[in-house]
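Supplementary Note 3. Input sequence used for the single-chain structure prediction.
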Amino acid sequence: MKDHIELISKEVVDSAFKIHVELGPGLLESVYEHLLSIELKKRGFKVIQQKNIPLLFDGKEFEIGFRADLWIEPGFIVELKSTENIAPVHLKQLLTYLRLTHLPLGLLINFGEAFIKNGIRRVANTSNPKVI
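The predicted structure, written as discrete structure tokens, is reproduced below.
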């Protein structure tokens, strides 16, 4: 399944690049989220926007507001930003989502960068990933 994860990653990056080249930086995060969702669906992916991520604690499940910007089936998370700089907390946010879902890899994409290649970060969950 590693090849499938890499394929999703490649298609997300390619889609983000296409959108950024056409529209540039400066739009709201929600606009990029919507457009990236549309582009990925055109490429044949099942995409869920603002997917709830439950927290399991002490044998109980809590839905307390964790939401992945984009969830690409069978399980790949893309977190989007539209800001001047990525802060360490943004990377931690994605890593937390990956740990809660036991997914191995996700992407953090900042559409606020002048050059989109500078705004893409791969985040790997090395502590407890499952194979998808």
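The longest helix spans residues 2-23. The chain has a mean pLDDT of 93.
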